[in-house]
Design goal:
mainly beta; seven-stranded antiparallel β-sheet; globular
């Protein structure tokens, strides 16, 4: 399946991004479409915080880079409804960078 990632704005300060099928292939369900606003918190090493919307509802996503080698990825997605229509998804991932900085 093809994937698309579009980002407008500098990664370290403030940006808007859109992702289509960016989490595939994967071992857990993930939103197909995601669009959000984020910031790299002044860092250029890949650290980011993003808030946005997907077909599941709203989401918050964070990538935290540790010593330029390890990346911890967190995402929480939900539709903010209660009862039978309630849907939530929480994921956590770990990455190891072979070459250090991107």
């Amino acid at each position: 399946m093809p994937s698309v990632h579009l980002r407008v704005g500098p990664y370290d300060t403030f940006f808007a991004e859109y992702n289509y099928a960016n989490s595939f292939p994967g071992s857990s369900p993930a939103p197909l479409h995601k669009g959000g606003l984020g910031s790299g918190l002044g860092m250029t090493n890949g650290t980011k915080v993003v808030l946005g919307v997907s077909e599941l509802g709203v989401y918050a996503e964070a990538d935290v880079v540790i010593k330029d080698k390890y990346v911890v990825s967190l995402m929480c997605n939900g539709n903010l409804q209660s009862g039978v229509e309630n849907q939530r998804m929480v994921s956590m991932g770990f990455k190891y960078r072979i070459y250090g900085k991107r």
